[in-house]
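Chapter review. Work through the record for SapC family protein before attempting the end-of-chapter questions.
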Amino acid sequence: MANIVPLNSTAHLNSLVKESKDYSRFKNQSLIPVVAQEFATLANEFPIVFVKNSESGQFTPIAMMGIKTDENLYCQTETWTSSVTPLAFSKAPLSLMKTSEESEELMVFVDEDSELLNTTKGNRLFDDAGEQSEYLKQRSNALLDLAGFTQQTSAITKYLAELKLLTPKQLTVKLSKNSEDVNINGIYIVDEKALNELKDEDFIAIKNKGLLPLIYAHLTSLHQIARLITKQRSLELTAS
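Structure tokens for SapC family protein:
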């Protein structure tokens, strides 16, 4: 549960934000949205695929952190074991949102129910005079950067979709000899055949836009599905 409210220096003058690598709040969320700027880093640990919004048709890249949709294999405990961390994990308890649906103005909001927000331990958001602390300025700038990255990523995925490079892919996983197959549906990947058959001008345009490294990072990351299978088998053996 969350209680998202606008951040202000009166109500949150004495609020502190505790830094933590406990990401167990994501334990039931196996698909984590990512941005293009982190593809190369995350591809060394997680499969990066795309999902499609059924209403808008917009594609979003995500890091797969589980075989089952309601189980994040990396967040079952309070200890984060991976050497890489998605940017989305570092936002809480702060977020950047529009002041209204009609406005393009953004402001910082805070989740008052977050365990990271308290009045005894952590980094102050405001000084005694009610001015933003250096910590809050840094966090606000990071949120702005992430918002910009997200916007750029949306444009990139829209471009890939317009070139008809994103194709649906069903993954069938067998966790053990005696277990039933697990089918993972609703994901999309870049179609290598379609990529290789692009018109020269389209391929050159992708190259000039700097998108080839992103595409190759995505394709390479698909090999990490084997890592997820290993982690799922380990989890089930531990539970049995």
